[in-house]
Specification:
single chain, 355 residues, 9-stranded mixed beta sheet, 11 helices, 25% strand, elongated, CMP_dCMP_dom, riboflavin biosynthesis, Cytidine_deaminase-like, Riboflavin biosynthesis protein RibD
Length: 355
């Protein structure tokens, strides 16, 4: 049976999802305020640099005098430090909100329990751990970044009914246009996913074969940072990823800066060693909470083999290639959900084996 705290924390999680994408690298916190069993205010974290969820929830309350007899529910511990905005704990204390219910303690080194401690020292009753597993799932990108020191990694691809990710090279050479395995509905969904993550990563072969834009033109929102694996800087010419239309990071072993394009960023990888941990370290340095890895097969497989992934989003289309490039085989996955997107089947997996 759901108790009253769980009911309102569930609502806080629900509205917090509205911040997915623009809030990063801040967490997408949700907050609700309840007075005498009535919800009188709610809010979620604004786009990065804007007000936090607690501020927006308090601002939404029409009669501020009710706050001193109300309960604030928040999915993540209120901050206690000055960043781009003042501490939320101070605002709660200022408005004399007597009870704060927290879903999850903040692992960020600048918070890490200090927000809760500050509230309690001011006489606020703080209740913790309400729907904690659900709050952890909600804040999985933020938690992975701060606890594991790497981005949350999503692997995405589409494969045919017979298990191929791309057609035979000879057929592709004869017909250089992209071979769409998934439907337009699935492709639009992928563009929505891109708007929700901070970075998107592909390898050289994917750029050569498909010349992708890696943007969100079929959806709304900001396009993610484009991250391109190009060991020898073989991508040259009129490829979209070189056009400077969106921030782009090239990962290469070429140190000759005269070969770099001025409008792109470059970082060096040691390709004689396993590259996936190096990629994670670089993206962590860039403050990237999440990355969507879209291909190709070798790149996806390298993350799978290293166990450096958190989710797989796999579309299976209705076509068959009979021969071509086999789809990745990723160990340690279990199905979270399965649904139809038009004629496609979308399976979502989680990583059961690695962290």
């Amino acid at each position: 049976m759901v108790n009253i705290h769980q009911k309102y924390m569930s609502r806080a999680i629900q509205i917090g999802r509205s911040g997915l994408g623009p809030t990063a690298p801040n967490p997408m916190v949700g907050a609700v305020i309840v007075h005498d069993g009535q919800l009188i205010g709610e809010g979620y974290t604004s786009a990065f640099g804007g007000p936090h969820a607690e501020v927006n929830a308090i601002d939404s309350v029409a009669d501020k005098t009710l706050l001193k007899r109300s309960t604030l529910y928040v999915t993540l511990e209120p901050c206690s430090h000055f960043g781009k905005t003042p501490p939320c704990a101070d605002l709660i204390i200022e408005h004399r909100i007597p009870t704060v219910v927290v879903g999850l303690k903040d692992p960020h080194k600048k918070v890490a329990g200090q927000g809760i401690e500050k509230l309690r020292r001011a006489g606020v009753q703080v209740i913790t751990g309400i729907l904690e597993p659900e709050c952890r799932e909600h804040h999985k990108r933020f938690l992975t970044y701060h606890e594991k020191k790497r981005p949350y990694i999503l692997l995405k691809w589409a494969e045919t009914e017979d298990g191929f990710i791309a057609p035979d090279p000879i057929e592709r050479h004869e017909n250089p246009e992209p071979f769409w395995i998934s439907t337009p509905y699935s492709r639009q969904l992928v563009h929505r996913w891109r708007s929700e993550e901070q970075a998107i990563l592909v390898g050289t072969t994917t750029v050569w074969d498909d010349n992708p834009k890696l943007d969100v033109r079929l959806w709304t929102g900001e396009s993610p940072l484009r991250v391109i694996l190009d060991r020898n800087l073989k991508i040259q010419g009129d490829y979209h990823v070189l056009d400077g239309s969106h921030p782009t990071l090239i990962l290469t072993e070429v140190e000759e800066t005269s070969r770099y394009l001025d409008h792109l960023e470059y970082r060096i990888l040691d390709f004689s060693k396993e590259v996936t941990p190096q990629i994670c370290s670089i993206l962590y340095e860039y403050g990237i909470l999440s990355v969507l890895v879209e291909g190709g097969a070798q790149t996806l497989q390298s993350f799978g083999n290293a166990g450096l992934w958190d989710e797989i989003r796999l579309f299976t289309g209705t076509s068959s290639f009979k021969k071509g490039l086999k789809a990745p085989t990723i160990p340690g996955k279990s199905v979270v959900s399965k649904k139809n997107i038009g004629s496609d089947v979308l399976r979502m997996y989680k990583n059961d084996r690695f962290g």
